[in-house]
Amino acid sequence: MFENVKTIFFDFDGCLHDSTKIFLPAFNKAYNYLVKLGQAPKKKWNEEEVGHKLGFNCFDIWNGVAPNAEETVISHCIEIVSQEQNRLIQTNQAVLFDGAIDTLKYLKNKGYKLVFVSNCRTYYKEAHAKVFGLDEIFSEMACAQDYDNIPKHEIVKNIMQRYEMDMVMIGDRFHDIDAGKKNGIMTIGSLQGYSLPNELDSADVCIEKITDLKKIL
Q: Which of 6, 123, 135, 153 is close enough to 182 for a disulfide, judged by CB 3.0 to 4.6 Å?
């Protein structure tokens, strides 16, 4: 199925990045701010709960958590998460899935063009690029904030004209499969991430972990 693939689009959180390691403490810190304002009930979130929020853009996450909060409050929650995650990244607490870098380097050495496409913010993309050397592996790194937070399928549509067909989109959430399907490219769902049961059923192929890509590409 993938023998003619030239370009691979990668989601980041839940696909390459074990994101809850830094997102959980940052999310809880912002949520506690909502609690202090009386905008949310007291609650301690766990890794599984916040993991299912990953893959959405930051505005969708916080509008879902606090639908009645004012825009300034939502913006401050986003800023709290940004500052805390950036601190954790800079202190080397961000973790990629085992074998992620080796798999990316394997694919690049095979001649594939690798493209990073994430619903993250610009600081997040740049901080991880620096810590893990991602800008030396990916031909391009695009994130939602760079494109005014438009849906991922629209970001891919903007980017794909610069690369060779055939293409494949790899990710762990329905946004990623949707981005491939709406642009007429193949899809690989990664079960290693934060998908809900049956969320990736429409993917052309599913893999258990990121290193499995070496078996099919």
A: 153
Taking only the tens place, the pLDDT of each residue in 81-120 is 999 999 999 999 999 999 999 999 999 999 999 999 999 9
What is the C-alpha separation between 76 and 193, in angstroms, rounded? 27
Joined together, the tokens standing for residue 30 give 């912002």
- Helices marked H in 58-181: 58-65, 71-90, 100-109, 122-132, 152-160, 174-181
Q: Which amino acid is at 133?
A: G
Instruction: Please say whether the beta carbons of 128 and 90 come within 8 A.
Output: no
Q: 186-190 and 205-207 as β-strands: parallel, antiparallel, unpaired?
A: parallel
3-class SS of residue 181:
helix
pTM: 0.90
Cα–Cα distance measured from residue 109 to residue 191, given in angstroms and rounded to the nearest whole number: 25
Q: For residue 119, what are its two tokens?
A: 């619903």
Q: What is the four-CA torsion angle of 45, 143, 149, 96, rounded to 10 degrees?
A: -10
Give me the sign of the Cα torsion angle 113, 107, 217, 11.
negative
